[in-house]
Amino acid sequence: MASEKLKELLNKAIAREIQVSIQYMWQHVQWMGVDHFAVTDNMKQVAIAEMKHAEKIAERLWYLGGVPTTKPTQISVGDELWQMIDFDIKAEEDAIELYKKIQKVAEAEGDPTTRFIFEAILEDEENHHDFFTSLKEKPMKKKK
Length: 144
Hints:
Elements: H1 4-30, H2 36-63, H3 81-108, H4 112-136
Helix pairs in contact: 1-2, 1-3, 2-4, 3-4
């Protein structure tokens, strides 16, 4: 069915999805200050979406004859809000790079289903990246 390379990449994706689902959920809990209410619900929703990604990828890996990992990659929550956002932007950039690679490997192996799954997940990850990068943008000043 699938190559060991593809199965390893899928497990890497699962570990990453578990990592960020925990990371974002803890950040959601720890986020403080004025922006708390404007941001934490969205962070919570992103964390839940990431766990659903882990489930979808695990189901695919199992179907392909692999065993899904239960170990996350390194979780980096951060102590300050700017640090949390920087960790999250990096995590999403890593995911985007990995998922593009998985799509190429799946395509090369004649596995359109895995490619299709990662096309959908990649769209979500790009939206998550946009959310986190928008948190770093400074508000525009009004012109006089």
